[in-house]
Design brief:
The protein has 109 residues and is of the alpha+beta class. The protein has one domain: Winged helix-like DNA-binding domain superfamily/Winged helix DNA-binding domain (Arc Repressor Mutant, subunit A). The protein is 64% helix and 13% strand. The protein starts with a helix and ends with a helix.
Amino acid sequence: MIEAAPITTIMRALADPTRRAVFERIANADEITVVELTRGSGVTQGAISQHLKSLKQAGLVTERPEGRNVYYRAQPAGLEPLVAWMNHYGVFWRERFADLRTLLKEIDP
């Protein structure tokens, strides 16, 4: 079975809609600063920084300081525990649906 702690941390990080939007903006950019993330978001820079802290703790983003700026980049490997968990349950449901299909064919050929 997949380890629960990393998955829980990732799910908690992505459960918040604002944090998820921040992550999506980071994922769609090569690199992006807090100032750029704040611009047009309707969220304060302090709130963006808190969301970034949660995303970093979950292993979903990395940071690269350069002078007065800190650049954020999505960390695709951070999603691997979640993807593995989803794949595990994908197999589970595919098997159940196949069993249901077989049962329905037996009931009503």
